[in-house]
Amino acid sequence: MSRLSIIPKLKRRKILDAIASGKRMDGRGLEEYREISVRRGVVEKAEGSAEARIGDTWVVAGVKIEIGEPFEDTPDEGILVCSADFAPVASPTFEPGPPDEASIELARVVDRGIRSSDALSLKDLCLIPGRKVYVIYIDLCILNHAGNLLDAASLAAVAALMEAKKPIYEVRDGEVYPTGEVEPLKLRRLPIAVSMAKIGDVIVLDPTFDEEEVMDTRITVTVDEEGNVCAVQKSGPQGLSVEEIWKAIEIAVNKAPMLREKLEAAL
């Protein structure tokens, strides 16, 4: 047996032994987050920006707003585009090149949480149906990966949208003209993503990098202010029982208000 195959097994056993005692390797309880901080206005030239840190995980989100043409099947709706950049310096597991499966999944989960919660009214972003709409770009930059990128990226994205200001255009004679003024981008909901990992028979909140390396599966539940489930994302080879899914939802609903407070208090 090679050394490379032995190390993950030893790490998993060590993590499982800690979990069995009711604590984790970093001393946290099974349903406890690491320290969380959110700061807005970190990128000067963006229409909106924010950074979120969960433990040593660090994500920066920038919002860019432009005018473009709507999709043919939604001529009276604006466009939301979310993308993620995994900087190679952020983790030894990141490599240079085009977006891989992990970065695509991250962007999709953040995008789905915002869309499914109806945080933005895409119809309100239409200027001329079929011709001119606002296009909202959310760019996520991973600066350090220490586990649970999904929650940090979601916090950063929503915080950046909260701070974003869109340019005001005047519609005249079938064309749009900039007025030189801006207004806040209105958010109707503040969706919160809460991620958990199943390791053995136990579900732990806010998994670290080491815990993610040995987890059997991960589930992310996004909820709104009223505790409604807006989106659920499961990844990993193992399944989850109905009871485990309900437990994950309960944890998400209970933890989301604390994360939302971090968003609302961000400066």
Notable traits:
single chain, 267 residues, alpha+beta, Ribosomal Protein S5, domain 2, six-stranded mixed β-sheet, four-stranded antiparallel β-sheet, 5 helices, 12 strands
Supply the CATH class.
Answer: Alpha Beta
Q: Biggest sheet: strands, sense, closure? A: 6 strands, mixed
Give the tally of β-strands.
12
Distance between the termini: 52 Å
Indicate the percent of residues in helices.
25-40%
Query: At CATH's second level, what is the architecture?
Result: 2-Layer Sandwich
Mean pLDDT: 91
- Seen as an oligomer or otherwise, the chain set is single chain
In terms of DSSP E residues, the strand content is 25-35%
CATH fold annotation: Ribosomal Protein S5, domain 2
H and E string: HEEEEHEEHEEEEHEEH
- Overall body shape: elongated
CATH superfamily, please? GHMP Kinase, N-terminal domain
Extract low-pLDDT stretches.
Answer: none
Describe the structure.
The chain has helices at residues 3-20, 101-116, 149-163, 209-214, 242-265, and strands spanning 36-40, 48-54, 57-68, 79-86, 126-128, 132-144, 165-172, 175-184, 192-199, 202-205, 217-223, 229-235. It has 5 helices and 12 strands. Helix 2 (101-116) packs across helix 3. It is α+β, with helices and mostly antiparallel strands. The model has no long low-confidence stretch (mean pLDDT 91). The protein has a single domain, classed as Ribosomal Protein S5, domain 2. A hairpin with a 7-residue loop joins strand 1 and strand 2 (48-54).
